[in-house]
Amino acid sequence: MQRWRLATVAGAALIATGAFASDSLQDVMKNRGLSQQDLLAAAKTYVPTGKRDEFVTFSSGGQSGQVIVYGVPSMRILKYVAVFTPEPWQGYGYDENSKAVLKQGRIDGKDITWGDTHHPAISETNGEYDGQFLFINDKANPRIAVIDLRDFETKQIVVNPIFKSEHGGTFVSPNTDYIIEAAQYAAPLENKKFYPLEEFNEKYRGGVTYWKFDRKAGRIDEKKSFSLELPPYSQDLSDFGKGPSDGWSFTNSFCSERYVGGIEKGRPPYEAGCSAKDTDYLHVVNWKRAAELVAAGKAKKINGHDVIMMDTAIKEGILFLIPEPKSPHGVDVTPDGKLLVVAGKLDTHVSVYSFEKIQAAIKAGKFESKDPYGIPVIAMKDALHTQVSLGLGPLHTQYDSKSCVAYTSLYVDSQVAKWNYCEGKVLDKISVHYNIGHLMAMEGDSTKPGGKYLVALNKLAIDRFVPVGPLHPQNHQLIDISGDKMQLLYDMPLPLGEPHYAVSIAANKLKPAVRYKVGTDSRTDEKHPGAVKAGEEKTVKKGNKVEVFGTLIRSHITPETIEVEVGDEVTIHLTNLERAQDETHGFTVSTYNTHASIEPGKTVTVKFKADKEGVYPYYCTEFCSALHLEMQGYLLVKPKGWKPTKTNLAAGNYTEADYKATLKKVADTQAVIDSVVAYITSVNYKDFPEVVAMVDDAFDQLGKTKDLKPKHEAAAAKKDWENANLWAEQIWQYQVKTADLGLRAKTFLEQNGAKKVK
Ligand code: CUK
Ligand code: CUA
């Protein structure tokens, strides 16, 4: 009793003096000015060390031309996927294999090294995210990229053969047979000849492209892709039908006035003329039928690409228009595929259209008019399910796991509205900061939305973050949607361009690899012709072409010296021989503007012209082991016809005592290795593939010491203490790498509950 009291008194005294201040939750709240609500939000987003996020988000990187990958709910950034823009860390655009991908995106023979990425889409099976592929569009230069989610690398870029800009992509059909890409600003489709703006209505056209995706090849099949010619209405966002509406697609438009601005000639500007009418047009397309028409040869070839012309589409009954309120933006099909929600930027309403009613009007031939190109127009009242007034500037809609519940972004109000689209009533609203564009719920555009969280992709951050100059970061805000009321949880600044759309998938659906099959060209998924195995490294010289077939393994680049003559064209293929997870090596040569990231198993090529005589160090750019800094070599660019005069490298002054000391170090380190091996083999390490890979690599390293023992012993017999000591030292280097891996394996086993085996 007495002792208890003493302890309490001592504790109180310490708290009073502040010694334990930071240990109490109350004190942290007080010191940092946090409310109960803040703590709740923190607890809902905090992911402790070693734990992982439940969802993975792929956000467009906007003008960065990349994709940003982050976890939900922690909002921790996991990766930037290089897509349309060179990215040095990944070697994207600095090694030959990735340059070949960027080259696919050339237009009119020109490199385009940036992109304006807008809408990522995850591949789907039966309308559900399957986690295999990601697609993303480039609005500025009409292109689509394919990213393989086995390695999160860009594999393909395709250039739209007939558009000059695009926006309404990428969205996938329920089984990812097709990826949609709709034009934005109308232009002549052939783009061979100049047409003045005075011929806008006659010569300028919009359209929508259906890219055929070959899932087995993991690539878009350009030959089997096709487009539909559309009026010059500035086609905007699109979506594919699903369930009952599978086989159909929907594309919005704005500026169906076909207004051409001309402020230079005293004409009112685009913004006035493009929003003058009360309605624009929703394009309704029977794409399955369109694909059949293409197969039946009813398309016209434009720039070598199949295009179904408008008159064919009208005659075959595959294209219809429906008026939609002022300057619509998003069109989003409900998870059950029965309804589509259209938001009009300049209207307070969202309009919910019924696919069933649209079909009934088409079957009955009930059209209110034709547009100037002869396309039948279904009356809005014949297609509407309901209209709901949500607020100012509705843009995009996402769906909840709870039936009939949708979320719509309100750009002007800086709010998210939660509403019921079956009954047409508003359920809740929350303010966001500020001016939200897209919003995204977990798997919220699939047939099985995941609910739980919503991310508001805000256009402005204004006062949310520490100021960093006039260009602010973007603000992605995480919102808890699990209850009746939405709760704001977290602000994430994103400083890499203006993201538009994002998609989020349950993390357990992603199954990325941790290494490549040794010798893989990751950009083609095929065996790299420059790949070699350990011991097969070589340098081949033919005329003025020098080709190096090298390898990388901790902490060694083979070869260590590359000798060329000035003017030679140098090609270096490097294979990473590691099997252990996360053992990436990088490679660069001083001043040759080249860099490669070589993950375990990958083979990468760098190429340059050695145009200036001199000495150029090369090294590994990833801190891969304790001897990382020693992972180095020299490119020697010699004058033509140069002959050596000196044949020996400078020697150190090693003694027998040095040699003996090194041998002692080798014996001590071996004892450490033996104890680690004894631990690893005493537990069920074979049940842990990560550990098996580390153990394999460790024994590889240790195996290399065998050939070295006779070398140092032979040198010692000749009293060549220099070589005796250095070959023994090299044994120690391999031991250090073995021990490094072994200790990591041991830690991994201890932390992951390895069990004793007898
Ligand atoms: S767009 Cu940017 S807010 Cu490109 Cu989908 Cu609507
Ligand atoms: Cu390999 Cu540093």
From TrEMBL:
<dbReference type="InterPro" id="IPR026468">
    <property type="entry name" value="Nitrous_oxide_Rdtase_Sec-dep"/>
</dbReference>
<keyword id="KW-0186">Copper</keyword>
<dbReference type="InterPro" id="IPR008972">
    <property type="entry name" value="Cupredoxin"/>
</dbReference>
<feature type="signal peptide">
    <location>
        <begin position="1"/>
        <end position="21"/>
    </location>
</feature>
<feature type="domain" description="EfeO-type cupredoxin-like">
    <location>
        <begin position="555"/>
        <end position="637"/>
    </location>
</feature>
<dbReference type="InterPro" id="IPR028096">
    <property type="entry name" value="EfeO_Cupredoxin"/>
</dbReference>
<dbReference type="InterPro" id="IPR051403">
    <property type="entry name" value="NosZ/Cyto_c_oxidase_sub2"/>
</dbReference>
<dbReference type="InterPro" id="IPR034205">
    <property type="entry name" value="N2OR_C"/>
</dbReference>
<keyword id="KW-0479">Metal-binding</keyword>
<keyword id="KW-0732">Signal</keyword>
<dbReference type="Pfam" id="PF13473">
    <property type="entry name" value="Cupredoxin_1"/>
</dbReference>
<dbReference type="Pfam" id="PF18764">
    <property type="entry name" value="nos_propeller"/>
</dbReference>
<dbReference type="InterPro" id="IPR041114">
    <property type="entry name" value="Nos_propeller"/>
</dbReference>
<protein>
    <recommendedName>
        <fullName>EfeO-type cupredoxin-like domain-containing protein</fullName>
    </recommendedName>
</protein>
<dbReference type="InterPro" id="IPR015943">
    <property type="entry name" value="WD40/YVTN_repeat-like_dom_sf"/>
</dbReference>
<dbReference type="InterPro" id="IPR011045">
    <property type="entry name" value="N2O_reductase_N"/>
</dbReference>
